[in-house]
Amino acid sequence: MEADRTIVEVETDKAVVELPAPVSGTVLKVNFNEGDLIKVGQTLVVIGEPGEEVEEEPSEAGEKAPEEPVKEPETEEPTKEPGRQPEKEEPEKEGRVLATPATRKLARDLDVDISAVEGTGPGGRVTREDVENAAEGEAEMPEEEPGEHEEEPRERIKIEGGDQRIPLTHMRKVIARRMSQSKSNIPHACGLDFVDVTRLVELREKQDSAFEDVKLTYLPFIVKAVTLALKKFPRFNSQFDEEKNEIIVKASHNIGIAVDTPDGLLVPVISNVELKSIMEIADEIVRLAKSARERELKLDEMKNSTFTITNIGSIGGMYSMPIINPPEVAILGVHRIKDLPLVIEGKVVPRKVMGISLSFDHRVVDGADATYFMNEIKRHLEDPDLLMVDMV
After folding, report:
1. Of the residues 38, 76, 250, 373, which has the maximum number of CB atoms within 10 A of its CB?
2. pLDDT, averaged across the chain
3. How far apart are CA 358 and CA 368, in angstroms?
4. SS3 for 124?
């Protein structure tokens, strides 16, 4: 096998990544099968010279065994030192917990069950901060009366003839987890409105014929209108730091565009939209959407978004309540353009009308802020000449 030749495709939370061989040689051992879950730091394959001996892979890659000597179980209760509590044995857990010896010792000192702590480090590793946060959370939890807040048993799903059980794909599991976390942790609120896009429809049809290489949709105009609104109301271009209870207002406008693919929803990111023209945005949308549907997105093309737009208009529907993509604080839904009667200067006339919806984090912004923000978007879409003027 030659160096830099692709040897395997690895599916991450967001994309499929080709891994090249780091060196030339012969594959001596493959440690995992197709479909296995591999943690960061574990050895996927061993490459060497033919006939070379292969060392066994340790049970936890990258994790050293505790330096403390293993003690034999004592038949009598050990003598307690003054002012010191006896150490509790760490409970066993299916699939040993990823944590350094120092982190495990800290968990014992703080009386934290490390097997119940959700790791935020690489590969799900439990970090020192995870243990400290768990200890603080347990300390603040009030005592409950017996029987109080007992969880109701879940009703078992009855499987009948003809029913089909479909396991979730890895990507579907990631989407389910992120959406559940978003709805559980973020107090969602939603504003709905409609936009008279008659003039935008006329402009788009006129401009579309002038560009042969790029199909000009309405989305580039919407993206530009959003970034102009973000410039005026920068709090919508922020991220919420839950650990420190701080709002991080981002300098760049990195707009995520939700793309429906056969495998699930992907959100490629257009970086620094504030510096791009409408045609540059249009070209990037086409390129990223194609890469998303073909699962060829690079990881850098799916990171660091500061605001997300989900375009449901091509499918249908007038309104929706999209779920925020954390740690962002808002997401805009744009919907189908329909012919509807509106009253213009006292007369009922047919107009092109598009529904919009804005889900926002009520910890960061209020309903009035959301209305001002949507009004700014509407102003630029209803009078698209402003897009050209305000871009200067």
Report:
1. 373
2. 80
3. 12
4. helix
pLDDT digits (tens, 9 = 90+) for 243-271: 889 999 999 999 999 988 887 888 999 99
Long-range contacts of 303-306, Cβ-Cβ distance < 8 Å, separation of 24 or more: 303/269, 304/254, 304/269, 304/271, 305/254, 305/255, 305/256, 305/267, 305/269, 306/230, 306/237, 306/238, 306/239, 306/250, 306/252, 306/253, 306/254, 306/255
**pLDDT tens across 80-137, in order?**
444 444 444 444 444 567 888 778 888 887 888 888 888 887 777 888 888 878 876 6
Q: CA neighbours within 13 Å on the CB side: how many for 144?
A: 7
Tell me the longest C-alpha to C-alpha distance in the chain.
Answer: 94
Sign of CA dihedral 125, 128, 134, 137: negative
Which residues carry out catalysis?
Answer: 362
Instruction: Assess contact for 328 and 187: CB atoms under 8 A.
Output: no
Cross-strand bridge partners of residue 255 = 270, 307
Kindly indicate the confidence band of residue 321, based on its pLDDT and cuts at 50, 70 and 90: very high
| pLDDT for residue 213 | 64
In the chain, the amino acid numbered 64 is: K
Is pTM beyond 0.70 here?
no
Q: Which residue, among 14, 293, 8, 17, has the nearest Cα to 170 in the 3D structure? A: 14
Amino acid identity of residue 240, one-letter, is: F
DSSP label at 114? G
pLDDT band at 16; cut points 50, 70, 90: low
| N residues, the chain | 392
Question: Which residue is associated with the tokens 């709805």?
Answer: 183
